[in-house]
Design a protein that fits this description.
There is one protein chain. By secondary structure, this protein is α/β, with parallel strands linked by helices. 46% of the residues lie in helices and 14% in strands. The longest helix is centred in the middle third of the chain and has 21 residues.
Length: 674
């Protein structure tokens, strides 16, 4: 039986698939997507699917992938979805379909405990503080019982813990086959399991890291795979450009200095003046950082004359001093290279950093753009403008000799563009010739959600705008008992709105104000849910950046989403500027062909936080009158789900009161929200 027929049979009412999820009822859109995936797997080629929230796209691609019997690579943008696919969805479906499938989970090396570096850290007398010493002891205890070495399994380890870089490896400091713990290496174990599995779950960062440096273990894996599926594909381009260029950071130099000093004092004390070499490296890194000034936190353009606002004489001198410092480190390490493999790897790291410094003295590669991220450390970046060439040459024609392979490539997300060809996604990803499928959400947005665009607010950018946004959010949070999320487009607005809400609710304690940055993301979301469930006061969460997507708070825990302004890309960003200039050189409109589509996709992502299931109800507020008054506003409105419109402050307040009433009633009669 052909794969599309097997897939249709699996999604039929009462079929085995219904055992995979309680009360599973395949929807028309879900079956349509599954059949398209099945045809692509059978015939080969590329398929791009935009599947609205609630379609059930995970089952739509997993079922035909499992039924195909092919070797499959699944890639996601987040470790959360990666763990969900591997730990829940794949085993559940394989069991329901009666398929003996072997699966494997492969993450980047920073996710796994490095036994050798843990042993070095144990002997390191420069651990930051007692908290780090206790954290290291906890890691050592767990290392005796873990099979995978995946740090996500270690309860209570904060993802921001300073101990993590000390007990994990990087491409730079891994000793490879020369490592004394090579046979027991958790990274190598994960790679071996991946090579022997039918379905391997990876993430976009790992995938592109391998395309860039052929180091992650997928260099051996990818040629054996016939089906590649990319979920959360809207992040592919921005993830890919991070890895397909070049980077040099002062943090890398400081890490080299720290590792050189630790290894030298432990393994070759007295043979080289390790403290002097480390000090030279640290000084070179510090001087490079100081060339761009103190106290700055920004992204600097890089012109033909060098980085803006930086002395054209001091800049190359600082890079040359960094090269010289790396050279001195190489000379010292060369004298002890036979003592331990650690010194050989340190020598290679120093050489690589010197080469990167030399690259940034030379002109930028054609078709790329350079900039500097300035913070506590300095990050020099050279990046391609998109991943189109890499996708075309390394994926779609992976078999070489210019012949397209018979492989199947499926790309899917809830948000991939605002036109029929999904150009926002397909153009920068080199997928202009791919088959396109758009599957709408099954949710009844006109009944479940409302959109309110307040009039008369200060214009975005005016000082009073953030205060006005905070006032609207405060009104909603008061009426709903929390259950409110504010999404901002800038960190400045994040701080201003957060402070205004804290002043509003600080004394009364009526609502707890959560602001991104005060806790890790996972903890913020947990506290937000607790507030809706009666665990203390309700919450209003003010957030930016990563909270615009990937945040799933179903039910009545979230009933109001407030967006401060239209999320156009920042015009002063060097990568944004370079992309706009390329379009202009092609005779196209940067505003219509880049800025508006970017804003449409981001707005759609933010709005997607509101309605997560068929029983959800809520209101979306966009505090930017341009959505209603400007010509391009119609295009942005069309990108949003078809919510009913609220046209007055009174209508907004009535909608909030209705939501509050439904929530109170649902505590005694849950059917009211069904």
């Amino acid at each position: 039986m052909r794969l599309p027929d097997l897939t249709r049979e699996a999604f039929a009412p009462g079929a085995a698939l219904s055992r995979a999820a309680e009360h599973f009822r395949p929807r028309e859109g879900q079956t349509e997507m599954a059949l398209a995936v099945a045809r692509t797997i059978e015939q080969g080629g590329a398929l791009v699917v935009e599947a609205g929230t609630g379609v059930g796209k995970t089952f739509s691609y997993l079922v035909p992938a499992l039924l195909s019997g092919e070797r499959v690579l699944l890639s996601t943008a987040t470790k959360t979805l990666q763990d969900q696919l591997y730990g829940r969805d794949l085993p559940r479906l394989a069991q329901a379909l009666g398929l003996p499938v072997k699966t494997a989970l492969l993450k980047g090396r920073a996710s796994y405990l490095c036994l050798h570096r843990m042993e070095l850290a144990r002997r390191d007398l420069t651990l930051p503080d007692r908290t780090s010493v206790r954290a290291l002891a906890k890691v050592e205890e767990w290392s005796q019982v873990t099979r995978t070495g995946d740090l996500a399994e270690l309860p209570g380890l904060d993802e921001r813990s300073p101990i993590i870089p000390l007990v994990t490896s990087t491409r730079d400091n891994c000793l490879g086959a020369q490592c004394p713990r090579f046979r027991a290496c958790h990274v190598n174990t994960a790679r071996r399991e991946a090579l022997g599995a039918d379905i391997v779950v990876v993430n976009h960062h790992l995938f592109f890291a391998d395309l860039a440096v052929r180091e992650s273990g997928m260099a051996e894996l990818l040629p054996t795979v016939r089906v590649g599926i990319f979920d959360e594909a809207h992040q592919l381009n921005e993830t890919g450009v991070q890895f397909l260029g070049a980077q040099l950071t002062t943090g890398q130099v400081l890490d080299l200095a720290r590792d050189l000093l630790a290894a030298g004092l432990q393994l070759a004390r007295g043979l080289v003046d390790w403290q002097q070499l480390a000090a030279i490296l640290e000084r070179a890194a510090r001087d490079l950082r100081l060339v761009v000034g103190r106290g700055m936190a920004t992204r600097l353009r890089w012109t033909a004359a060098g980085p803006e606002a930086v002395s054209p004489d001091a800049w190359p001198q600082s890079l040359e001093a960094l090269q010289a410092a790396c050279g001195q480190a190489q000379d010292g390490l060369a004298t002890v290279s036979e003592i331990a493999p650690d010194f050989v790897r340190l020598h290679e790291r120093a050489e690589a950093l010197a080469q990167r410094a030399a690259r940034f003295v030379q002109p930028c590669e054609p078709g790329s753009v350079r900039w500097i991220d300035v913070g506590q450390q300095l990050r020099l970046v050279e990046s391609p403008l998109d991943i189109a060439q890499a996708v075309h040459t390394r994926l779609l024609k992976q078999d070489g000799e210019g012949e397209a392979s018979h492989r199947a490539w499926i790309f899917t997300s809830a948000t991939l563009g605002d036109d029929e060809r999904l150009s926002w996604f397909t153009e920068p990803c080199g997928l202009g010739a791919a088959e396109i499928l758009r599957v709408g959400s099954p949710f009844d947005y006109a009944r479940q959600a409302a959109l309110y665009v307040p009039q008369g607010l200060p214009r975005p950018g005016e000082p009073a705008h953030s205060a006005a946004v905070a006032a609207i959010a405060a009104e909603g949070a008061s009426r709903l008992g929390g259950r409110t999320m504010v999404l901002t487009t800038t960190l400045r607005a994040l701080r201003a709105i957060g402070e205004a809400l804290q002043q509003r609710f600080g004394e009364s304690g009526e609502v707890e104000v959560l602001v991104q940055g005060q806790w890790p993301k996972r903890r913020l979301i947990e506290r937000f849910r607790e507030g809706a469930q009666g665990g203390g006061p309700g919450c209003v969460l003010v957030a930016s950046a990563s909270f615009w997507e990937g945040v799933d708070i179903p039910g009545d825990a979230l009933q109001l989403v407030v967006i401060d302004k239209l999320p156009f890309p920042p015009p002063g960003d060097p990568l944004v500027e370079a992309r706009a200039q390329r379009l202009q050189a092609q005779g196209r409109s940067p505003f219509n062909d880049y800025y508006v589509p970017e804003a449409a996709v981001a707005l759609k992502q933010g709005a997607g936080r509101l309605i997560r299931q068929e029983t959800d109800r809520g209101v979306l507020v966009v505090c930017d009158s341009r959505l209603a008054s400007m010509g391009y506003g119609r295009r942005l409105l069309q990108a949003l789900p078809p919510m009913r419109r609220l046209t007055s402050a009174e209508g907004f307040e009535e909608a909030l009161d209705e939501l509050a009433g439904l929530t109170r009633a649902s505590t005694t009669d849950p059917g009211l929200l069904g």
